[in-house]
Structure formats: C-alpha cells, structure tokens
Amino acid sequence: MRGLISALVATLAACGDAHTSSSAHATVRGTTMDAQSGEPLAHVLLEGPGGASAQSDEHGRFVLEGLSVGAEGELRARAPGGRVGSVSLRKLAAGELEVVVHVR
Q1: CB-based burial of residue 32 (10 Å sphere; 0-12 exposed, 13-18 middle, 19+ buried)?
Q2: How confident is the model over 67-89, as pLDDT tens digits?
C-alpha cells in the first residue's frame, strides 16, 4: 500500500510539473530612456516578439506580459516625434526580465 501511495504521489507531481511548464510565460519589464539625457520617456510604444505590445507610463515604465517561453527577437520602441530604440531579446525563460530601452 505504501508503494502504491508513493507511486501515486510521484505521478501527480509529474503531472503538476508538466502543467506548470506548459502554461509558463515570460514577462519583460523595463524603462524607456532618452539616450542623450538619461531621463525616462513617457508614451513610448513598444512591440516585442509574437506581437506583444505596451506603452510606457509617465515614469517610462512598461510591462510586456504573456510572452511565450523561448520567444526571441527585437523589442522595438517608437517615441512621439519618431525617435526609436531597440533591445535584442535572447530566448526568454519563464519569469521576468528587466531591460532598459534607450531611445535616440
């Protein structure tokens, strides 16, 4: 009986791990900054892998949520007035990544 319970617990744990990894997502948080002054920039539009998008707030902060684990590519920024910036994202892991995007 003890062996049966141990096997059941191990099976349930494996199922839980499979569910967690398949539903895991990545989040990219960051700040948009003026490349010359170093000041945060508000109202910057950001586009990341898989069509994820966000806009920086009055403190230059943004959050891209629900990104696929393993996604990679460019995080592109476009500020009012046409100024741009970008950051290369390597394959994303589950959890959060903090970046700074310098806009020129």
Answers
A1: buried
A2: 999 999 999 999 999 999 999 99
